[in-house]
Specification:
With 101 residues, the protein is an alpha+beta fold. The protein has a domain of 52 residues: YefM-like domain (YefM-like fold). It is built from three helices and four strands, in the order E-E-H-H-E-E-H. It is elongated, with a radius of gyration of 22 Å.
């Protein structure tokens, strides 16, 4: 019978005006996902860093909060709306193998 040894926690936490903020690396996110999601359930904000620089923010899901800001659509959405093309034909042409010679 072995003794369970807890994994080392390399993420750090600090306080800001909105509450507790946890800083975690991408490796921490991969290895300790459950603990980081539990931190968001407690109202904490998790800042994900990659190579020491903040890259993402993990917060608890709020169904009342809009996912996209009003009028904040992706600029690439509808990019070719004014073109009269057959989308299926374009996709088939992109997926076709290249012919040399």
């Amino acid at each position: 019978m072995g003794i369970a040894v807890p994994a080392p926690q390399s993420y750090t936490s600090f306080c800001n005006l909105r509450g507790v903020t946890v800083e975690a690396t991408t490796k921490d996110l991969r290895l300790h996902t459950r603990e980081l999601i539990a931190a968001t359930d407690r109202g904490e904000e998790v800042i994900i860093t990659w190579r020491g620089k903040p890259r993402a923010r993990l917060i608890a899901f709020d169904p009342e909060r809009p996912v996209v800001a009003p009028g904040g659509r992706n600029p690439a959405f509808g990019l070719w709306r004014d073109r009269n093309i057959d989308v299926d034909a374009e996709v088939r042409a992109l997926r076709a193998p290249r012919r040399f010679g």
